[in-house]
Write a structure and sequence with these properties.
Layout (H helix, E strand, L loop, with lengths): L4 E10 L2 E8 L19 E8 L3 H19 L7 E7 L2 E7 L3 E3 H11 L5 H20 L8 E2 L8 E4 L4 E3 L6 E2 L19 H4 L7 H17 L9 H8 L4 H10 L10 H12 L22 E4 L4 E4 L1
Antiparallel strand pairs: 1-2, 2-3, 3-5, 4-5, 6-8, 7-10, 8-9, 11-12
The protein binds adenosine-5'-diphosphate (ADP) and magnesium ion.
Length: 310
């Protein structure tokens, strides 16, 4: 790829283009040591590509713009952007490689093994994601409009080696109140979309991300990734008895009416409190395979992606 990136793996391929894991191998003379957002030679990066003539290239250009805004603002919980280039009729965006696995991997594994992801771990992931959403609300894009991710779901959240949740895939991200909703065929395909997005109402804003965030937390807690009850809190109690705090966050974020939804600041602060609990007594789960005595110590060992002791 342009002689600077050696592809080591294909991470994804879809309607939106191809995503590669690659090694950055610049010629000595082109390596700019003064730019703090250029990766070290030899480091692993992610390269997303699309045909220049495809609409996917427009999404990629938007993604690149957002990554630049994140770089400038030191936005936490997102990959650093390393720029873009064109080659052979394709458009490429380069970014930091987050070494880890998507949250969806952990949810599927837990489901397969009939186990729960520990509530404390979900609270930690939730704290990180909500914190990033708070940062989005302080950023502006293209003349003062705020930023929406618009495709927040476990597959687009990478849990890094240290257990931090990093939001990836800004290919769908929009500025607030963009009028592309009517023509956007992608809308409505995911259970993580807010109701106002599913129904193609205009004027959705960061609160739609808040809903998707709630659905993501709900999915991580219950293993449920497609069917949401109209009353998430009740639905959650019937699936898993979680602590009051996290139940309130899910319920607050998944309100049908955007104006009734919890603010990401509130969700973040509540979940952060939860991560500090020395022992989550109220988090003892029902069903599946945990007994009262084993549940709190069972959680994912992030380093190798298998269930282990925390
Ligand atoms: N910065 C990144 N670091 C590590 N893996 C990534 C990164 N960005 C994307 N991926 C991986 O590649 C997959 C596809 O990339 P994504 O940006 O979600 O594109 P799309 O879903 O539009 O194909 C993701 O699910 C994720 O596993
Ligand atoms: Mg994706």
């Amino acid at each position: 790829m342009s002689g600077r990136y050696r592809v080591v793996e294909e991470l994804g391929k879809g309607g939106m283009g191809t995503v590669y894991k690659a090694v950055y191998e610049p010629a000595d003379k082109e390596y700019d040591h003064s730019d703090r957002f250029v990766p070290e030679p030899g480091s692993i990066v992610v390269v997303k590509s699309a045909k220049k003539t495809d609409t996917a290239a427009e999404s990629l250009r938007r993604e690149r713009t957002l990554l630049t805004i994140f770089n400038r603002n030191n936005t936490p919980g997102v990959p650093r952007g390393y720029g873009d280039f064109e080659f052979n009729g394709n458009y490429y965006v380069v970014m930091e490689f987050i070494d880890g696995k998507p949250m969806s991997h952990y949810i599927e594994n837990a489901n397969d093994e009939g186990k729960w992801i520990s509530e404390k771990m979900v609270a930690k992931w939730g704290t990180d994601i909500a914190n990033t959403l708070v940062s989005f609300s302080h950023l502006s894009y293209d003349g003062g409009l705020s930023i929406i991710h618009d495709d927040l779901k476990p597959a687009n959240i990478i849990i890094d080696e240290n257990g931090n949740a990093i939001i990836a895939d800004f290919g769908c991200a929009r500025k607030w109140n963009d009028n592309i909703l009517d023509t956007d065929s992608r809308v409505g395909t995911s259970g993580f979309f807010a109701p106002e997005r599913k129904h193609r109402l205009k004027g959705s804003d960061l609160r739609s991300d808040t809903y998707s965030f709630g659905a993501t937390i709900y999915a991580a807690l219950t293993g449920e990734t497609s069917n949401y009850p109209t009353s998430p809190a009740l639905g959650m109690r019937s699936k898993r008895s979680a602590s009051d705090i996290i139940t309130r966050v899910v319920h607050g974020c998944m309100q049908i009416e955007p104006e009734r939804r919890m603010k990401p600041e509130t969700a973040r602060d509540m979940l952060r409190e939860l991560t500090k609990h020395p022992y989550l007594r109220s988090a003892i789960s029902v069903g599946k395979t945990y007994s009262h005595t084993t549940q709190p110590s069972q959680a994912y060992d992030i380093r190798n992606g298998v269930l282990g002791k925390m």
